């Protein structure tokens, strides 16, 4: 199943929460194509969720901002609430349904 833009952005934010990273580091650690990572970082930077801290002809380094950390925390809390609601439904905890619920949460936040 293809990941939505919102899910890709949340994954990128989560990686940057670990510390400063290059586009290629994010790409290799997430399995997301580097060009896709670059495009989403541009979007996230425009929203003030990440910032570019170094740029040269060969490498660009990004970090998450305080606003980005707050946004990521909100996304995780909302996803957790949805998962807790699902836990009461016996078959809805299956991986596919959980992924759909998390995707829905991320989609609503964008």
Strand order of the largest sheet: 1-3-2
Order of helices and strands: HEHHEEHH
User: Which overall shape is indicated by the principal axes computed on the Cα atoms?
Assistant: elongated
Q: Gyration radius, to the nearest Å?
A: 15 Å
Counted beta strands:
3
Low-pLDDT stretches are 90-95
Q: Helix segment count?
A: 5
Which structural category fits the helices and strands?
mainly alpha
The end-to-end distance, rounded to whole angstroms, is 20 Å
Largest sheet: 3 strands, antiparallel
Beta-strand fraction estimate: 5-15%
Report the mean per-residue pLDDT as an integer. Answer: 87
Helix content: 55-70%
Can you walk me through this structure?
- The chain has helices at residues 5-16, 23-30, 34-46, 66-87, 95-109, and strands spanning 21-22, 50-55, 60-64.
- 64% of the residues lie in helices and 12% in strands.
- The model is unreliable at 90-95 (pLDDT under 50).
- Helix 2 (23-30) crosses helix 3 and helix 4 (66-87) packs across helix 5 (95-109).
- It has a three-stranded antiparallel beta sheet.
- The chain contains five helices and three strands.
- A hairpin with a 4-residue loop joins strand 2 (50-55) and strand 3 (60-64).
- The longest helix is centred in the last third of the chain and has 22 residues, at 66-87.
- With 110 residues, the chain is mostly helical.
- It is elongated.
- 20% of the residues are buried.
């Amino acid at each position: 199943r293809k990941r939505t833009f919102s899910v890709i952005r949340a994954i990128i934010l989560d990686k940057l929460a670990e510390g400063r990273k290059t586009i290629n580091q994010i790409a290799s650690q997430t399995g997301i194509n580097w060009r896709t990572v670059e495009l989403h970082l541009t979007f996230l930077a425009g929203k003030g969720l990440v910032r570019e801290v170094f740029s040269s002809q060969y490498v660009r380094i990004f970090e998450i901002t305080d606003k980005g950390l707050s946004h990521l925390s909100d996304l995780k809390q909302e996803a957790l609430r949805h998962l807790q609601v699902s836990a009461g439904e016996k078959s809805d905890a299956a991986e596919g349904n959980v992924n759909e619920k998390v995707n829905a949460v991320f989609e609503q936040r964008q």
